[in-house]
Protein 1
Amino acid sequence: MHAIRTEGLTKHYSVGFWRSRPYVALDHLSLEVAQGEIFGFLGPNGAGKTTTLKLLMQLIFPTSGQAWILDRPAGDVEMRRRIGYLPENPSFYDNVSAEELLAYFAALFGYRGAERAKRVAVLLDEVGLGAERRLQLRKYSKGMIQRVGLAQALINDPDVVFLDEPMSGLDPIGRREVRDIILRLRDRGATVFFSSHILADAESICSRVGIVAGGKLVAAGTLADMVPFHIKGWDLIVSGVSADTRAALAARGATATLISEGRYHVVLPPELSSAEAVALVRATGGELVSINPVRDTLEDFFLAQVQQSARRTFD
Amino acid sequence: MRAIGLVALHVFRDSVRDKVLYSIVAFAVLLMAASYLIGQLTAGEDLKIIKDLGLAAMSLMGLFIAVFIGIGLIAREIDRRSIYAVLAKPVRRTELIVGKYLGLVGTLFVNLAVMAVAYYVILAYIGSTLSPAALKAAPAPAADPRLLLAVVMIGFELALVTAIALFWSTFSSSALLSAGLTVAMYVAGQFGADLKNFEQVVESPAAGMVGRGLYYLLPNFAAFDIKTEVVHALPVQPGYLVLTAVYALVYIALLLVASVVIFSRRDFK
């Protein structure tokens, strides 16, 4: 059983008032996400990420194609008992508190009485909302609303969780917390499908990613498939290096850039082994501050894919 | 059914706390109290004027509540995207619409009850200040229970206005447009009798037919107005009241069905 499956999912909007013309928001998206995966759905703004999520939630209806969640059609109401959804930039009701909102949603899932109160309290603790949970939502900051949004997406202990830009509006601490929540969800066997345009988020937690650009899926696979672990060189920070050291490094094809007093950023070609470089620096009286391998990142791959897709569209 | 109840309860809780509501109700009570002053200006007729103005205030403020908060049912929810999270829950769109409608009608009725209590308190107070002779001369007692008939009719009228507000907001995502269309329909519906007799005053048979068509299509709000009858202690046929109530319920049901049909197919872009 797949957690999520789409076949040729397509959505056209008509734009323009008098002479309306179709705008392809999503073009034949076929995708499979296995159970227990953390799937990162990546793409630049306007690529079709939110459209895909809305189609899966059946907030909009496809022009053609189909989607299934847990092997049930996307519109199936019973299936929704087993999923959670955090919309992009969520917004709720002004005059209720976080506690009341969650109690309402929990009731829709059939939780009652003490069990419901407990579920609400656990979730609000998990997303880090303290005493403010009793305040009306109109007094909340953007980051707090995002936390409420995350809590309501998890209220029913879902098997599949859809998160549209879950990190947006959060500070670095909040982002870390969200990342931990996603990892905990995976640990208890849930599937997480999240969209983002921030690649670092995806790189640190995803088991698989899909890249969408211009409404089309341009790549999908594991990070290892997309970004080969191929070392392109070495990145060193060294201090106390003399002109001699720099000359010796330059002779071996390295470039050195001054950062601050006596501290240099050195980039070594891949032919030179890290041990050789370190030895060279030490031998000439310098001191090594840090050394890192230079390899392709998801960002490099992403940019290449998005640019290629834009070029194809342009041609 | 459970989902409908939960949605209704949530709407009631959210809307009953809306600050706009308090100001509208406070304003209505103020208006009723002020009618006492206006009544002072007209010798002999003061009680009738106070009764009439009080009912008018209730009806007008109820209209404000039905339109402005009613529009918030769907239009504002789509505008602000709070509907996204709800629709991803195990709730059918039909249940959402019906639940929201019932929740708002609940809010409306609670407010109407508050205004009615204030109305009777004011009337009872005024009744206590009048001389026995003046009371005897009046066609009905000050806190006349028959006035409740008019309040109940206002209730039906406002329930219908709410259904109209809901209907418009299912396909327009602009809250302002929905409000405008609802008020326009309310105003047009006040001229039911004129539309019915339109063919007698126009030459063109086509215009006459348009008038008659509109008469059948638009809700006849004038039918709910029994203020004059109750204030002047004129008879009101029970059959008329029942028929008007049934008319409101049928019209509301049709509007709800239409709203559900439109809303079930709607894309939330």
Protein 2
Amino acid sequence: MKVAILDRDGVINLDSDDYIKSPDEWVPIESSIKAIKLLKEKNFKVYIATNQSGVGRGLYTKEILNNIHNKFFNILDEYSTCIDGLVYCPHTPLDDCSCRKPKPGLFYQIRDKYNVNLESAFSVGDSLRDLEAAKSSGIDKLYLVRTGKGIREIAKHQNKIEDLKIEVFDDLLDVINQKIIKLL
Amino acid sequence: MQKEDLLFEIGTEELPTHSLQPLTISLVNNITSELNINKLEFSEIKSFVTPRRLAVIVKDLSDKQQDYEVNLFGPKVKVAFDNDNNPTKAALGFAKKCGLEDVSLLDKLDINGELTLAYSKKIEGKKTQELLPEIFKKSIEKSTIKKPMRWSDHSYSFVRPIHWLLMIYGKDIVDFEIFGNKSSNLTYGHRFLSSDSIQINNASDYESSLQNAYVIADYEKRKDRIKSQVLDIAREEKAKVTNLDELIDEVTCLTEWPCSILGKFSEDFLEVPKECLQSAMQGHQKYFCLEDANGNFLPRFITVSNIPNKVDPSGVSRIISGNERVLSARLDDARFFFSSDKKKDFTKFSEKLKKIVFQNKLGTLFDKTERVVRISEYLFNNTKSERNNNISLNNLLLAAKYSKNDLATEMVYEFPELQGIMGSYYARLDNSIPNDVAFALSDYYKPVSSEDRLPESDIGMLLAIADRIDTIVGIYAGANLTPTGDKDPYGLRRAALAIIKISLANNLYFDLNKLISFVIGLYKAAGLEIDKSYNDKIYFFILDRLKTYYQENNVETSVFRAVYNTENISIIDFNKKVDAVCKLVENPLIKDLALINKRIGNILQKNDIAKITEIDGSILDSTYEKDLVDNIVNIEDEFNLQYNNKNYYAMLELVLHLKTKIDSFFDNVMILVEDNCVRNNRLVILAKIRNMIMTVADLSELYQKI
């Protein structure tokens, strides 16, 4: 089974330090939607794992988050594609949950809920903690993108990125073109 | 009780071939039901049919009706006897009606709490002989006759004029008269080989007596005889019969004493496409055609005559030469059409289509192909499929453009059944036309019948849908010729079913409603006025055909209805929902989900919700209520995602997870409270759950059976 596990904010849509609090604030990165379509055409299972502490902080409700995701799904539909699953962590750092990245909980949720073998998966994120979480869950193929927080993260964690053998790309479509399409 | 066999035979003038079997079947059915109504016992009914006779033998028919009882009810006991306990006039009158003199023989039964006089009267069964005329009169009058005819100056009508009537029960003639013929025990044999009447003394002699008079009355025996004769001849010629199944029933309906003969035609004709040869031989002459092991036609044919070979050997050679002469004239024509069509530029035939009317209000065939080109392009751009990535739009449009060209050729004018096939032939001879376009020109006509194969090529399947949706919309909305009952002159039902089968088999995903609007738009652009309501009418007309499709595939109608009641974008969606519901039916929890759906439906029907579409979290007070809403919110994301994935089973499973929460909500929360806001909010919660279920299927349809 070919599996891709992606972060949401900064990878699929434009990130905001002010949180994404409504469907209007959720703006897709068009090339990333095309990248998802490409992955699906190459028979990948595509899952999203995302921290949404805004729920725990009371900035927006789960209902609003559902609406945001519905917008995302509808956009995928316009491109005649879809994803296979989405999990999120609604907690704040203070809750000390097991799912907030860099902990691997969300990846385990994907493994159990959708019956996925994580060893074969690759993971894409725009921050180090996305990929640390992936690494702890047993994923070796880790790709960082320069969209979202990416550029800041590269400057900040140069050494760790090298330690974890994380490869860096321009954006999600670049990852897919370089790592997936070329190898097939 | 005695039992005898009954024989009934009507002798007719030559019956139309297509009427033989429907007539026999309906006659047997009618007789069976009439005998049952009259409580007459029998063991079996055997039917016989030839071009000149219809007959049935009812075996072991009892000679009288079974005795039976009729329950009669009289006056109430309190008015039936006076104070001295003497019967009143009412009681005496009832006793008389029951054929009794003594009132005390009557029963007293409790009817609705009051004692009432009653009697079950024994009725002695009537004699079969007396009942038979009425039974057969009704059975014949009720039988299916598509085009009845009248003859002479009589007022009655039947398929064809009647010449004799035979009816015997045991050895006795049954006194019966219909269509001006009185019954006898006489029948007649072969029209030319047996002149005198034949007396039948017993039903069991019927078949053998006719056999001696050159008539094989049993349909299946006659059919088997033809089959074995034809196959014997083919074996001697080391050949295969190409059209045995298509023709054998018709030939069986044309002969009483079938004799198969081999004939020849000139090898020169083999340059004509074999489909044309077969059309000429099968359509007009009812000949069986032969081909060799490589599929090449042989210059041979088999004809089935109604005259036995042995009677007159010189006659046989005359029959052969006569047939050969007629055939060679027909094949000459076919060869001429083929060569003269070939000389013309196939692509230019579209000019001639401008003079051929498709339908009065819908313009010419040229107009139709122009629309089909546009629809094909629309389908190409708006259909999702794993397959049509390989299609070149250019070739698809070319195929659409030439799709009706062959209708202007002389060959198709003479042999209409060759439409498509000839287009493909002529296109292949034209070097400017790509091969897959030529192939599609006949491919898109499939499926011709309900058992036929579907188009094989990618171009063929899109073109097949484009052509059929154009016909459906045009005839239905433009010409306003809605199919009614069994009348469907343009085959719209078959066309709709074909669209369904092609999309399902090839997983072609397109928005059916939008396709219909697009086609309606084309007709409107041509100046036709089409009411808005036709969009929905045609949409449901096509979805209605899915019912037939699922019946053929053994899916319960309730499952079909459950999905039918929901909003469906494409035929593929519809089918996925049906699959999901079928899979869910195996889950014991479906009953719970169906009950929930029904219960919520009932509540919502009685209580209109004011316009609040979102649940107001601030006025949730009961913990059960909060718990349910939390759970709805938690599954909603996944629900939407699965909706996007068209994974309808997963969607229903998600709602199933809510089951315990919904139950405790119903058990512990009062929904119809005084406070308007709270009540509305609770109704919105319920509406939300129902919407989730109804997105996939109206499960309350299934509730009726579980």
Protein 3
Amino acid sequence: MPRTLIVVLGFLLSGLVGLGAYFLPLFQTAATASAVPRGLPNLNPIQPPSQPFTVLLLGSDDDSKFVPDQLNTQSMILLRVDPATKQATMLSIPRDLWVQLPNQGMGKISWAYRTGGPQGAVDAVQSTFKVHIDDYVWIGLNGLVKLIDRLGGVNLQVTNPVMDDYYPADLNASEDPYGYYRVAVLPGATHMDGVHALQYVRSRHGDVRGDFARSERQQQLLLAIKAEASHLNLTDLPALASAFNGEIKTSMGLDRLRSLLTIANEFNGPNVHRVVLVPPYTSEGYAGDQSVVFPDWNRILPLVHQSFP
Amino acid sequence: MRWAIGVGLVAAMLAFGVGVYEAAGLLRANQHTVHRPSEVSAPSLPGTMYVVQAGAIYRFQHGSFQQITSESGWMQPSTAPDGQLVAVRRQGNYSDLYLLSSSGKTTSQLSHNASTRAVEDNHWTFYPRFSPDGQSLFYDFDPKDAFSSYRIDLAIFVSPMTPGSRAQEFTNPNDYTGGDVQPVPMRDGSLIYTKFSIDDSFQVHSQVWIQRRAGSEGAALTSADAGCGQPAVSPDEKLIAMVCTKGSSQSAELDVASLDTSNLTLGSPATLVSGRMVASPSFSPDGKTIAFLAPDSPGGHFQLWTVGSSGPASVRQITSDLALDSSSAPVWING
């Protein structure tokens, strides 16, 4: 082999090792995800997605009060993105929605994740809402905090004061997981770090809308995260991935993540349709001793199928 | 010689690998850089202004910022009699009101909201504002509900500054909305503030409200659909500036309207700033300019801006790399 070729190959190999080291956190995150992304990231320019797709976004309280493999979902948001029409829909599913869980009987839809993991949640939503889900993303409490902090914070328009005297002090494992502290999020436009953004979307005690208010704020936070993430590129992903350390699980491949970044700027407030299943789509009540939310499927399914055909 | 060349090439290859690693890092999206106000200069504005960043109050004069308190939870300063300031100091589970000298020295603590009993026995106070005659202090407080430990709605209270007088609840907030906030006391004793309501379809509405006296029902100055709040009144009380969302959760515009307190009406609002997340407007001492806070890029930190109160053509960015507290309206005074 000519010496020149050996030298060129040496530099090439060295460059690839440097590149590999930079993207190593991505591969490590892939290894801890419940479904390994499909293959290595493609560093070449990629085509943005052209077909509509649906993602189920899941959030859980994963503090030390809970057994790691037996978490409920505190947040379920069905997201439909249509790149061709540049329209997106976010549908928040009440965590206490009383539904027929696949192979289990009646239960809260938030229980599906506890018994069946992410796929259990996907199955429950697919069977009850009669929709097809392409991918899921699950995130824990610390994962959300780290994500927002890595993005440099988010800007949110706080609609009304969010006051809570019993906000759980469960983010740090060293603290009493049943402890609590007071939260006061003041109204108006504000810049929030991860901890404060989590307080904003997690608190529910002081609002007449209870969990519905939380759902609305969670959708608002997603839009704010999207606004921040639209500035990112492939080289930002390793720093994000290293922050998660098992706090995020997804069935989405890296290529799909990359392609989503390419269209993120095209989806702004006016073309993102937000749906929260408030009354009359749902009604609060009791099933046995459980406080639940009863669905009115005759109203819900036509609404859902307008946006999730 | 051949060995030396080999070692040199291997070293160059290693350096190249490290270079590729570093170069990849340089391609990352720019994070927003933040400086302390005292580290930067800015275009000079007439008079003196107080702003807040990271729990510290800064005085802005002649184009430079001077830190006048430590970074220890200070927020929402406002003018007080005798050239003093009144401000909130927020700690973990409570906040208190303090009087400060113009140089930031604490002269007295006006409230004592900390509790050593249960967490929920602590109290909040926010948004202190002296009446124009300096005789009364209006502020937000969270009275406890004897029948529901979950209901925490801020109400606006008024405390006469005479010794021995008691605080009085001035407004009656709608239940489970978070309460009434951002009081602006007027010369005739009435109060303008932001009131929240939640309708049967669970939509939150924010309205600029006016009340003639403590406990009265009051009247809305803006429609529920406009989503207006954060009122600021010009020194001559003829103009009101406010932040209106008009249903958007991602932007808020700065509107200004004429104010008729005798008939409890506003003129048709004019939009001075739109397409931004505007917060906390405040009039200049001559009423001709409005200072406000807003990010200069999506997701960015809040910066100081000004705009002429008579038209939108004069929007001017004063700072560019600060992280100002958007819940603390700039205090703009003569001198």
Protein 4
Amino acid sequence: MSDTNLFEQQRRNRRRSALLVAIFLLFFAWIGFGGDYVFYLSTMPDPTPGLSRGSGPTYHHTFPWFGIGATLLGIGMAWYGWRNGPKQVLWASGAWELVQPTKPEEQQLVNVVEEMAIASGLPKPTVWIVPDQDPNAFATGTDEGHAHIAATEGLLTALNRDELQAVVAHELAHIKNYDVKLMTLLAALVGVLALISDGTRRFLGRGGARVVGRRSGGGGRKGGGGLVVILLALWLISVLLAPIVSRLLALAVSRKREFLADASGAQFTRNPAALASALRKIEDAAAPTQAIQRGSAHLCIADPLGRRINAKQGLVADIFGTHPPMAVRIARLKAMAYQYEKTGVIPEAV
Amino acid sequence: MSWILLILIVATVVWGISAYNGLIQLKGDTLNAWKQIDVQLKRRHDLIPNLVNAVKGAMDFERETLEAVIQARNQAVKIQAEALPTGGVKKLAAAEATLGAALSRLSVVVEQYPQLKATGNIGQLQEELTSTENRVAFARQLYNDTGTTYNVRQQQFPWSLIAGMARAEIVELWEITDEQERAVPKVDLSGKPKA
């Protein structure tokens, strides 16, 4: 990857990360301030004093406590996700940190990571092992200095040294062009949204709907109730739609990033053929990688869930897929290897 | 009119500052890449006595091969102490190539001693050796890439105007001449990258 390509990709990823956080915060603000507005309309003081409702103190919701609270909560969660995203991703996969290698293949992994750190000019990331027999690997982290690379046990046994080197180079390319930053943030924030939406649905399933229903009914008596109902419905729908929002956020991750990381990984190793044969081996081990859940699937070098859409080409697959088809990646790498052999230069774009 | 002049002067100064900083950045990157080579070469030099000790007992009659490795290593250590990006890179590259050739010959010889290979220690040392050779190769690759960018930039117009002020100097690249390549036997047991 030439410098301009790299900087372009870094800038794009920084912009997307900021956009992601903005959407996340807007979502919280919408839920909070929307709730405030609905509450405000339903507790509005009666215009005609003679018709005041019953007795006892009436509460007028005039200050947007919910909105401010929810926005602060969103900021807190984004910050927490940012700080702990890598830890969460690693923890969810059951990975353990490889500090003191004991087996020869562990030593080899540590060596290969150090070699590729030199080739890419990055500080050495920490190395983790995922106890899973399916070959796969991912990288996570907040920036170059705090990056982690995880490989499954299956990867260490299935690949030879050159292929392992190629996979590690691919992951370091993700670190270098800030892909991991965006993708880890995505995993953390999507995780939070999924949690909220699950919680809301459970709350609405149990009696919550009854409370809300009575409020909107009370507003209906005073006129303007139609607006309240519509707002309430919109608000509820958006809360319920949180998982879809999170899916939409996942679209911020383009499957192109894998092509880019393949290409710049090959720049580090100067050996595109090794990555091609590594991908072939990873693809041939068809079993899904059980240790890796849906929330962090987009981080991996190959789709750990083996979803069918990722084997397809075309517009729909480009939009909804997380990984490009393996056959296309391998074909591009083979073309690179051919060109490298002929000209002695790794082609920049694939 | 004077406004236009003022704007032109300001634009030139702003460009000058950014060009100067850009060159200084590249210089820093190049020196950093060079330091990386230094570190990896030191690692290589430190590993060799261990390797020689591990195989010495079983290969008493291969004294010549071992001697060649030790000699090449000592020579390389001496040259490394004086090498800088702006001078002595070629000499160091030649010394390291000689060392590399001696090491490959040793690797070939080790292959002929199955009882040596059977002990785990040698397997580990060979992995270390492979890794070290790779590190040297990749550090060299990074240095050559950054050094080339630095060299090209400081010679290009209009950066060349600033180059003197930024004390930019052409750095020597770590090139492997054909001669040296031929000196290395084409036996590759380590799966070294084709750098």
